[in-house]
Amino acid sequence: MAALEEEFTLSAVPLGAGPDGLLGVEQCDKTDQFLITDGGRTVILYKVSDQKPLGSWSVKQGQVITCPAVCNFQTGEYIVVHDSKVLRLWTNEDVNLDKVFKATLSAEVYRIHSIPGTEPLVLFKEGAVRGLEALLAEPQQKIETVISDEEVINMEITLLMYKSLTQVS
């Protein structure tokens, strides 16, 4: 059962407010921790109960984070994509994103979805979906085009697709 508590502001910047806004706020593997991804270069791990950041990671100058960072609930690692095709994995102990695991993918990523109890799913801009493990085993695999040039993925479609994919497994 949910308990109502006093509210507080994680960020005064609205979600999706361009390069200065937030790309996303995603739950972590610990109940009161969230990953906050800004529209530029930074991911912040925030602990709600303490109302303070626990860690912060940034990509290099000239690189841009292109989808919200998520937690891999199976491993406790964090995942982010920058420059649409470069996937990075790291843990709390890592300090520099430039020195963590990196996989350059063959197609542009739209979003990564991760929920407890399942492998993270990578949704590509052209509509294809891959499990993270299969993608890491072969990062340069051919990614098929599922949607036409006239079609666009929007958040509502993504959530419906995500719900359908999780119900299948």
From TrEMBL:
One of its GO terms (molecular function) is RNA binding. GO terms for biological process: maturation of SSU-rRNA. Residues 1-161 form the Nucleolar protein 11 N-terminal domain. Pfam families: NOL11_N. InterPro entries: NOL11 (IPR042859), NOL11_N (IPR012584), WD40_repeat_dom_sf (IPR036322). GO terms for cellular component: nucleolus. It comes from the Eukaryota. PANTHER family: NUCLEOLAR PROTEIN 11. This is Nucleolar protein 11. The lineage of its organism: Eukaryota, Metazoa, Chordata, Craniata, Vertebrata.
